[in-house]
Design brief:
mainly beta; Immunoglobulin-like; four-stranded antiparallel sheet; three-stranded antiparallel sheet; 9 strands; disordered N terminus
């Protein structure tokens, strides 16, 4: 017989609880603009300061549909101009992914995105007027940070990527 304060659930994982998002692995990439869009499998990492943010679940971890993945924040910092400085928030809200492609065509590496959104055509060139714009000299080190939630998993995870990029306006 159970008394007040008693529980049939033991441990820290109650029955029916969602697994933590930390059970999943992701990669964040900044690709050449439009090199990874619906139907495209020509993934080219950006070398210039304009491109598209995309993320990929670990091999064999993509399940469900693209709409199960939601980006809640996108932040960027030009660490060359502002080392250790604040990140500029590009997006805050709930951006539901609407596209997924099998990048190699082998059913193992999938890239998710929402085309024509805050993830696309991010222009950080020296003439862009962006708060974190390239300084116009050599390569600049950019930090990209994306906060992600996945349907069926508890919590959120922060994906980061740092890249040395040359000025797209040079």
């Amino acid at each position: 017989m159970l008394g007040l304060g008693s529980s049939l659930i033991s441990g820290s994982d109650p029955i029916g609880a969602l697994p933590p998002i930390s059970d999943l692995a992701f990669a964040l990439n900044f690709y050449e603009a439009d090199s990874v869009d619906s139907g495209s499998t020509n993934a080219a990492e950006a070398t210039l300061s304009i491109g598209d943010l995309r993320f990929a679940p670990g091999a064999g971890q993509y399940t469900g549909t693209a709409s199960d993945y939601k980006v809640t924040k996108i932040e960027i910092r030009n660490s060359t101009v502002s080392p250790g400085g604040a990140l500029t928030e590009e997006f805050s809200g709930e951006l539901t992914m609407d596209s997924v492609i099998d990048i190699l065509g082998l059913g193992s590496v999938f890239v998710l995105f929402d085309n024509d959104s805050a993830m696309d055509d991010i222009d950080l060139g020296s003439n862009s007027g962006h708060a974190q714009a390239h300084n116009g000299s050599g390569n600049n080190l950019f930090l990209f940070r994306v906060t992600l939630e996945v349907e069926g998993y508890s919590g959120s995870t922060v994906l980061t990527r740092s890249l040395n990029l040359s000025d797209s306006d040079a």
